[in-house]
Amino acid sequence: MFLLYIMPILNIFKGKGNVLYYPGCLTKHMLSAELENYKKILNRLKIDFIMLPQEMCCGSPARNAGYETDARKLARKNLELFKQHSVSRIITNCPACFKVFSQDYKEMLPDWGIKAEHIVFTILNALEKGQKAIVKKSSEKATYHDPCHLGRHCGIYEEPRLILELLGYEIVEMKNNKENAFCCGGGAGLKANNPELAAKVAKRIIKQAKDAGVSKIITTCPLCFAHLTENSDIGIEITEFSYAVADALGLKAERVVIGAER
Predict the structure, then answer these.
(1) Using CA of residue 47, residue 53, residue 245, residue 207, what is the dihedral sign?
(2) Which residues, at least 6 apart from 192, have a Cβ–Cβ distance to it below 8 Å?
(3) Per residue in 149-173, is it b (16+ CB within 10 Å) or e — as a string?
(4) For the chain, what is the mean pLDDT?
(5) Per the CB 3.0–4.6 Å rule, which of 47, 167, 220, 240 could disulfide with 225?
(6) Mean pLDDT of 7-17
(7) Which CATH architecture has domain 135-248?
(8) Is 135-248 in the same CATH topology as 16-123?
(9) Nearest by Cα to 260 from 217, 221, 230
(10) Confidence class of residue 257 from pLDDT cuts 50, 70 and 90?
(11) The whole model's pTM is what?
(12) If you ran DSSP here, which 8-state letter would residue 175 be given?
């Protein structure tokens, strides 16, 4: 705990800021296994990072629901908190948080100057800089589900696939992929307001995976992972990205039973 507060001061004297790992609300509060996986991955890849125990929501749900004033207040509070801890770069595994930090905050906060990076770039850069030697390659076939925020909102399609290929996976595409990928059905308030329709959307993706001849769907979004898992069929395994990476790095990947932490 002492280091948590002294490191920002030390880094100021070094002339650099801290790298913050920001897991996002869903990962932090409901998917503790994924949180631990990503922390282990960052440590194995020798990425120095801090975490903030008083972390607040990025404001994405508020803004998407039309509460613009509340979203802007959260953005300002986050910026003040990040400045207190000399944060110069944010790494997040949540596509929605990444979209907010890399795009929305630039619009909402004229003094926003913190670089945001989705963790797929962190992992890919580390693997390409010589960390590939520690990878235990898989020989599985899998399909990759493109999350809306990471794909259509941020244009990130190739990097997750490239990482999985470096880990030894053979990627088989579903009929609808990349720009034309289906939403998982769990976001934008659909699950809360029309759970039956949300479930049907998820099952449509699972059927496409079966039609592609694979038994594993890998996704980089915690919400997609949770929603697809809740609607998965026998013979289809839903894998959150951290599981695949942690296993390949020889780490003991934590696994969560969806619903057990609710």
Answers:
(1) negative
(2) none
(3) bbbbbbebbebbbebbebbebebee
(4) 89
(5) 240
(6) 53
(7) 3-Layer(aba) Sandwich (3.40)
(8) yes
(9) 230
(10) low
(11) 0.88
(12) S
Architecture of 16-123 per CATH? 3-Layer(aba) Sandwich (3.40)
18-21 and 87-92 beta bridge pairing: parallel
Instruction: Show the tokens assigned to 16.
Output: 């650099």
Domain limits of the chain? 16-123, 135-248
Strand ranges across the sheet with 18-21: 18-21, 87-92, 115-118
Residue-wise over 50-68: b if at least 16 C-beta within 10 A, else e?
bebeebebbbbbbbeeeee
Q: Three-class SS string for 95-133?
A: HHHHHHHHHHHHHHCCCCCCEEEEHHHHHHHHHHCCHHH
Which helix (H) or strand (E) covers residue 62, if one does?
A: helix 60-64
Identify which has the larger pLDDT, 250 or 119.
119
**CA distance linking residue 14 with residue 71, whole number of Å:** 33
Report which secondary-structure segment, H or E, holds 141: strand 141-145
Banded model confidence at residue 6, pLDDT cuts 50, 70, 90:
low
Residue reference for tokens 């235990």: 136
How do residues 208-242 score in pLDDT, each as one tens digit?
Answer: 999 999 999 999 999 999 999 999 988 899 999 99
Structure-token pair, residue 233: 């069929």
Return d(Cα 219, Cα 223) in angstroms, integer: 9
Reduce the DSSP state of residue 206 to 3 states and report it. helix
Compute the distance between CA of residue 212 and CA of residue 175 in angstroms, rounded to an integer: 8
